[in-house]
Amino acid sequence: MNVLQRHLDIGVMEASGLTHESHKKDVEQVYLRCSEGSIEWMYPTGALIVNLRPNMFSSSSKHLTVCIKPFKDSTGANIYLEKTGELKLLVRDGDRSPNKVYCFGYDQGGLFIEATPQQDISRKITGFQYELISKGIASDLHTVSAPCRPCSDTEVLLAVCTSDFVVRGSIQDVTNEVEQQESVIDVSVSRLYRQKSKVFQPSEESGSWRGQIKTLLECGVKPGDGDFLFTGRMHFGEARLGCAPRFKDFQRMYKEAKDKGLNPCEIGPD
Fold first, then answer.
1. Domain count, the chain
2. Which residue ranges does UniProt annotate as crossing the membrane (predicted)?
3. Is the pLDDT confidence value at 168 over 90?
């Protein structure tokens, strides 16, 4: 491989197939020990076996889900799930499904990336982002049944303790992206409780903190009055909406749980 870089828990792998032009049937292996990152294969020829070996106890590996998100302009290779010599096609070369994410259990196998025959490989680059996440979080992000249903009181209180971001704010605008089947919520933040990444930042124009959260288009989110408690997860660098009760409802459920000694963690509701 030409370049292999790792920093913190994010892995970046770049490779070029031009140096292997005389060995178009070569199969090379790469090992990545980061929990998230990206792979970019320039001028693909032959095949790559991608081995994800996270720096964690092996006993916890069975509880992991692997998700990959191909780059928008990724082309030049098919991506398979491989286990004991059997291949299952995940991403076909040329598939232009916008923002589609493919997930599978860590114990289901590894990734086998096979270059497709090309007249001019210099115009081809295959690439994708990857994440290793716990199966519980993965099911939250990619739930099939009732993805837009309101959270119960218990789910809200747990989300406050475990989410990547927790903010109080109002919906300023909603942009519907029909092609991606997503809605982008523009949030004005009145209080920032926690954020894993710098999704919400001070706005010079309004003087308040602002940020964007994505959710499914089918949920039908619309701008409206009042404050909400927004919680959710970071997924491929984007904030994905989890539980989002009206703030007055959160205050009620938080106080009731606190009075009974049942709140899973402390957070100032005011």
1. 2
2. none
3. yes
